[in-house]
Amino acid sequence: MLDQPIAQIKNLRVEFQTKDGPVVGVEDVSFEISPGETLCIVGESGSGKSVSSLSLMRLVEFGGGEIAGGQLLFDRREGGEVDLAQSEQDLMKQIRGNEIGMIFQEPMTALNPVFTVGRQLTEGLRVHKNMSKREAEARAIELLREVRIPEPERRLNQYPHELSGGMRQRVVIAMAMACEPRLLIADEPTTALDVTIQAEILALMDRLKRETGTAVMFITHDMAVVAQMADRVVVMFRGNKVEEGTVQEIFENPTHDYTKALLAAVPKLGEMTGKAAPEPMKLLGVEGQNLDPIPGTEEVLLRVKGLTTRFEVKGGFFRRTVANVHAVEDVSFTINKGQTLSLVGESGCGKSSAGRSILRLVEPMAGEIDLDGKDIMQLNQNGLRQARLDMQMIFQDPFASLNPQMQLSDQVAEPMWNYGMGSASDINARVEMLFDRVHLPRSFMRRYPHEMSGGQRQRIAIARALALNPKLIIADEAVSALDVSVQAQVLNLMMELQSELGLSFLFISHDMAVVERVSHHVGVMYLGRIVEMGPRSRVFENPQHPYTQALMKAVPIADPNRRKSEKDLNFKPIPSPIHPVDHVVEPSVYNEVESGHYVLTTDSGY
What we know:
Layout (H helix, E strand, L loop, with lengths): L6 E12 L2 E13 L4 E5 L6 H8 L8 E11 L5 E3 L5 H7 L4 E4 L3 H4 L6 H13 L3 H14 L5 H4 L9 H13 L5 E5 L7 H18 L2 E6 L2 H7 L2 E6 L2 E7 H6 L4 H8 L35 E16 L4 E17 L3 E5 L6 H8 L7 E6 L2 E2 L5 H7 L3 E4 L3 H4 L6 H11 L5 H14 L16 H13 L5 E5 L7 H18 L2 E6 L2 H7 L2 E6 L2 E7 H6 L4 H9 L23 E3 L9 E5 L2 E4 L6
Parallel strand pairs: 3-8, 3-9, 6-7, 7-8, 13-18, 13-19, 16-17, 17-18
Antiparallel strand pairs: 1-2, 1-4, 4-5, 9-10, 11-12, 11-14, 12-21, 14-15, 19-20, 20-23, 22-23
Helix pairs in contact: 4-5, 5-7, 7-8, 15-16, 15-17, 16-17, 17-18
């Protein structure tokens, strides 16, 4: 029988035992997956999508869960159908890795740091396929070629920390594909990666699926990735399946309210075409939204000129400086009051270093920073402390930037105590007002960070950044770790605060669709330089620099009719930003292609 599904999940129920009694992770879920098909399972954190996949591998038991009901039928190559829910662990060892492969979310934790890449790749082949060492190594090199890793022979002897994030994720895919499994489970395999690398890895998985006929179960919360990859889609919400259909049906004609809300919350590239100013997103089921555009003012708040930040590389016997990492190289821009400038680019392009240099959290080597008439570079420690009243930062990971042992109200009040802003009752009143502003109930003031969801923690971080009434907020990837609907709410909150308080934002991100939604101006960074800069509408609708064009091409669009093919993606590998000490850098020279739209003419290496 050819049309026999490879795996069928029937009425699965998974429970986790806690001190307060059992918690249901998956309540009652059924779906099946056929050979050569990509099934995407979509949902937000806590919807039970990863638990379903870990149950199929029977790994959920190692995380304190138990399969409380249902069947997990799997069609083996030889030996017909088995119910994995009832199988012995010995049989599971044969199936895991050999017939069902798994790609985990975080490549650094999926690889063992103390073994070479070659040893980890050949292990499965030698266990499951009884290959000799030499055969296994030859096959490993072949696999690395298939996932497009350059110089595969050299890579076998390297350790995971010597590879970049995208390379490590390719090794994990090669490991999962090594024994040619019938079913490949991919759990958020591209969440932590850049747009360009994500595009390549999605194209790679699609090609491997077509060539080998493997079925792929793809778990994600990114609707654009679903539109790019899926044949069929299962939408999960709070441990249940709420909708299932082909990718066309789900995107063009969703029936369940949750699916509709999920699709409405995704910023789509090209949505802002023809609009002069950013405006908040229209979210379903949220009352009383202010959706007016935010024009901002023409008055300059921050002026940065020739900013250069380098990090020393020490080496040799005397720990001398042998080279420099050129993190930020001759960067200049201005931000107006009440407006947002976004810096976009891939990891390692220097955008976060630029943000931190402006606050002098890392010391720049050269350049001028003028914030509302104050020369930030000339200030001593005391002057800098005063200047920081006007500029605050929101970090990427709200859990790491909050103190786990302090109540939330104290965390928001702390900056005001530090600067002696009023009496205890004044400060308390302001904390209550800030909780109202970021739409958190006042009952949360007594809670601790671990009692909150990611989106709520990020709101606390925003409330704390607002405590001192700053003029400029630097948001470093502030929404990249959040779920789609939460991300949309936090973005709307930031824009609402901008329109009411006249805040200026320096928004650092690698998500082009989000940047298009929030920005007045956009700067595209590559290898420490801004390669293109201008009003948002011009940079997005008329990109001039080849790197900007490649970046735009790579962004997946949440529409299944506009899929990318592998030939659309031709990225050059990024050169190293490390140069010897005597390296002479050419200054950045720009050509103005239209009013206010500048493109770098100096050779940027792209």
